[in-house]
Amino acid sequence: MNDYMLRILNGGVAKNDWPKEKHLEFVKICEVYIKDLQSRGQLVAAQPLARQGVVLSRAGERWSEEALDLDTEVQVGYYLVRAESVAAAVEIAKGNPEFEYSAAARVEVRPLKAEEAISGYSYPTLKPA
Fold it and tell me: Which residue range forms the structural domain that includes residue 11?
């Protein structure tokens, strides 16, 4: 089993006009998705991201902070999952409720590196709940 990050992306304003009831329905469907992944031993961690923060960059010795551009595509959350292959992780991602609720949704599926080949350094990892 390998660990994969499912980086959940959506249009910045995709959910702004939702009534409270639709947002609650979406959150409840996400809870079902999470519980299903947990029951199959595929979920390591999952969290939505708050709609605030900054983008930090550096040029030489100068640091810069920019506000998030919440009108464009933004990362709205992530899942860390366990799967046998990228294809299996993609299948897990296809079940994400974002796709049912937003035409702008996208999920980036990427394997996590456990260690650096050049130095042998092993990264700390989360253990499944």
Answer: 2-111
Which pLDDT tens digit goes with each residue over 75-117? 999 999 999 999 999 999 999 999 999 999 999 999 999 899 9
CATH number of 70's domain: 3.30.70.1060
State the DSSP string of 79-128. EEEEESSHHHHHHHHHT-THHHH-TT-EEEEEEPP-B-TTT-PBPP-PPP
The number of domains in the chain is 1
Pick from 81, 96, 91, 90: nearest CA to 10:
96
* 90 token code pair: 């993609």
Give pTM, 2 decimals: 0.88
